[in-house]
Amino acid sequence: MGEQQHVKFPPEVVAEYAALGIDIVALFSAGHLGSRMGVEIVEASADRVVGTMPVEGNTQPYGLLHGGASAVLAETLGSVGSMLHGGSSKIAVGVDLNCTHHRGVRSGLVTGVATPVHQGRSTATYEIVISDEEGRRVCTARLTCLLRDAPTAV
User: Fold this and answer.
1) For the chain, which terminus, N or C, has the lower number of CB atoms within 10 Å?
2) Angle CA(72)–CA(2)–CA(64) in degrees, nearest 5?
3) Which of 12-26, 53-67, 71-85, 91-105 has the lowest mean pLDDT?
4) Are 58 and 65 within 8 A, CB to CB?
């Protein structure tokens, strides 16, 4: 499904994680599931995360984009935003995901944009809007993540 694009992070974020010995681009590559589904994160900050996913290979028996595939894209993008909001001292754990599917898509690429609804000390909630190549809304999702203290190295 093509080469993985480099994720766009603010330089200060890259430096913060690099100082801890963490390759933030690899960390936020969407993981094994996201890679299998062709998810590519193309922009990432605590205030906006953008990613794409092909419809091909992610369809249900009727040939439409699978609702679970939309959920994977939404959770990936919202989790990245939550992790960036929490910073290097926190990990984000999804505790609630809600997806409303508005229209079917049979081909092309869908794009998800995650923006914060709430950015607190212990939780972060993101709205994720997934659109088709014509800019039509395919799915609206909301993800809430619990922000837990990151384990300390011993």
Assistant:
1) C
2) 45
3) 12-26
4) yes
Residue tagged active-site, from 3, 40, 75, 134: 75
Q: Which residues contact 110 (CB under 8 A, 6 or more apart)?
A: 52, 53, 54, 55, 65, 70, 73, 130, 131, 132, 133, 138
- Other CB atoms within 10 A of residue 97 CB: 17
The letter for the amino acid at 123 is T
pTM, full prediction: 0.86
Average pLDDT over residues 52-81: 96
- Please tell me what DSSP assigns to residue 134: T
User: What's the number of CA atoms in the CB half-sphere (13 Å) around residue 15?
Assistant: 3
